[in-house]
Design a protein that fits this description.
- It contains eight helices and ten strands.
- By secondary structure, the chain is α/β, with parallel strands linked by helices.
- Strands 6-7-8-3-9-10 form a six-stranded mixed beta sheet, with helices on both faces.
- α5 crosses α6.
- It binds adenosine-5'-diphosphate (2 copies).
- The site of one adenosine-5'-diphosphate has 5 residues, from loops.
- This is Phosphonate ABC transporter ATP-binding protein.
């Protein structure tokens, strides 16, 4: 039962740069997949084709056995709603509260002006509390985002994606700017959501050491090509 399938996917950027070259693989539902590769290998391109932040040049990507190229307008927005994305730099509104940052995850379902004015219901507030509980940050709900450590800010970003009830979380170098201690908190959080809530997680990492600790499976990219694809049981020190 695959949640995501790549079939002969190619991506060539407008300036001629090859982002992805004939990528083929399937991701089983509930897998914790780590994508490794040097800078420029195509990791970020690969992630962004899944929620169509980047359009592929040829081939097909399926989610739940449906080609995502067919989605337009409202259907595309709904597809994206169920795919949470987190980034290396967290993308939080720094001077805003944790609560408002998490609540903004509802945008798309929810009129933006309500968030801006803080006009949200007790039920919305309850959902924010629940999302923060999933990332172990409930006590920080009224803190300003930029008062938190990097690892805490990344967990706020994860809580924000939980407001969309994601089936898939895409994490693009989520710990690249964090120290080992806070990296662990972030990776543990992603792993818990994967294990306990069944969310399929795809993480780009340049650290194979971290990949080895968390992944069910590791794939490797080099110059846009998939050059490595192994379940974690087959990954040895030499890799
Ligand atoms: P596409 O619409 O093909 O997915 P984007 O909209 O992502 O492309 O990017 C538009 C332009 O931005 C590219 O054609 C390129 O000139 C520039 N660009 C953005 N990021 C990069 C990068 N990492 N390397 C080179 N050029 C880049
Ligand atoms: P990674 O995430 O592994 O560092 P990327 O997916 O960002 O790799 O980049 C893959 C290749 O595509 C690189 O050569 C990069 O410069 C290029 N690239 C990325 N985004 C764009 C863009 N918008 N326009 C043109 N080239 C890009």
């Amino acid at each position: 039962d695959s949640i995501i399938s790549f079939r002969h996917v190619n991506k060539v950027y407008a300036n001629g740069t090859v982002g992805l070259k004939d990528i083929n693989f399937d991701i089983p539902r509930g897998q914790f997949l780590v994508v490794v590769g040097l800078s420029g290998a195509g990791k970020s391109t690969l992630l962004r084709t899944i929620n169509r932040l980047h359009e592929i040049s040829s081939g097909e990507i399926q989610i739940d056995n449906e080609a995502i190229s067919a989605y337009k307008g409202k259907a595309l927005r709904q597809l994206r709603c169920h795919i949470g994305m987190i980034f290396q730099n967290f993308n939080l509104v720094k001077r805003s509260s944790v609560e408002k940052n998490v609540l903004s995850g509802l945008v798309g379902y929810y009129p933006t002006w309500k968030c801006v004015l803080g006009l949200f219901s007790a039920h919305d507030h309850q959902r924010v509390v629940q999302a923060l509980d999933r990332v172990s940050l409930t006590p920080k709900i009224f803190a300003r985002a930029d008062e938190l450590s990097g690892g805490q800010q990344q967990r706020v970003a994860i809580a924000r994606t939980l407001m969309q009830d994601p089936h898939i979380i895409l994490a693009d170098e989520p710990v690249a700017s964090l120290d080992p201690r806070t990296s662990k908190d972030v990776m543990d959080t992603l792993k818990r959501l994967n294990r306990e809530d069944g969310i399929t997680v795809i993480v780009n990492l340049h650290s194979v050491a971290i990949a080895r600790q968390y992944a069910d499976r590791i794939i490797g990219l080099r110059a846009g090509e998939l050059v490595y694809d192994e379940p974690i049981a087959n990954v040895t020190e030499a890799n």
